[in-house]
Amino acid sequence: MKLNKVEPRYISKSNPRIGLITLGSDFRIEKDFSNIIYGRDIDLYVNRIHCYNPLTNETLAKMADDITEVTKDILPDQKIDCVAYGCTSGTVAAGYDTIKEKVHLAKPEAKVTTPITSAINALKVLGINKISIFTPYTKIINDSVVNYFEKKNIIINSLTYFDIDSDLDIGKVDEGYLFEVLSKIDLEGSEALFVSCTALPVLSIIDKLEKKINKIVLSSNQTLIWDSLNAINYKEKIDGFGKLFNS
């Protein structure tokens, strides 16, 4: 047998890299990221983190124990430009600084974003400080989310919620029914509606919902993706997913 050794040629640079940490039970978030970045010069790498049901502030905070190991397994020993932690209420429960610290133990060079901090960033960019909130959560988790916004000087005019305590059940909410519920919320006095939770099927209806209610609509996945794109300095226009992407 004749052997032929050929020298490899390696690429000189890679696309910007986003590492996504998503809950083990989340049906939605990878689809939402893919729907926005498909066909763009952006690479997405995903790993899942164990979550605990029923959802409580304690079980949500406990997830953070695994962040460093989960982050390490996203392209081990390779650079990631941005790590997105895909849990809104989990960020509130554990604290952004804790999440950032645990990510940086594995990927010290990465920028770190979360749904709740990205929502705050979006509200600042849009110049909004009076909102209504919709969540699928139970009252205890809702209280924590509302308190988080209020500590950032955001006025909450109203809160509407489903009272679901399982992330698996949140992921099964019917998109058409969700649109009906959101379109009927009284938003008088509010400048925007924020829909919390990465597992809800919101992103695909935001454009239609904004037209119907004539208000800006933000969601956990939408703001997380927007903030991730900002972190990698992606500036191209994106249509079809709400006014935020044209801000």
Can you describe this structure in just a few lines?
It contains 11 helices and 8 strands. By secondary structure, the chain is of the alpha/beta class.
Describe the 3D structure.
The chain has helices at residues 29-37, 57-62, 67-72, 88-94, 96-106, 115-126, 139-151, 167-170, 175-183, 206-213, 220-231, and strands at 17-23, 43-49, 82-86, 111-113, 130-135, 155-161, 192-195, 216-219. It has 247 residues and is α/β, with parallel strands linked by helices. It has two domains: 17-115 and 224-246, 3-Layer(aba) Sandwich (Rossmann fold); 117-220, 3-Layer(aba) Sandwich (Rossmann fold), CATH 3.40.50.12500. The strands form two sheets. Strands 2-1-3-4 form a four-stranded parallel β-sheet, sandwiched between helices. Strands 6-5-7-8 form a four-stranded parallel β-sheet, with helices on both faces. Helix 4 (88-94) packs across helix 7 (139-151). It is globular.
Topology, element by element:
Elements: E1 17-23, H1 29-37, E2 43-49, H2 57-62, H3 67-72, E3 82-86, H4 88-94, H5 96-106, E4 111-113, H6 115-126, E5 130-135, H7 139-151, E6 155-161, H8 167-170, H9 175-183, E7 192-195, H10 206-213, E8 216-219, H11 220-231
Parallel strand pairs: 1-2, 1-3, 3-4, 5-6, 5-7, 7-8
N- to C-terminal separation? 63 Å
Content of β-strand: 15-25%
Give the count of helical stretches: 11
Number of domains: 2
- Helical amount: 25-40%
Global Rg: 19 Å
CATH architecture grouping of the largest domain: 3-Layer(aba) Sandwich
Protein name: Maleate isomerase
Organism: Pelagibacter ubique
Pfam families: Amdase
GO molecular function, one term: isomerase activity
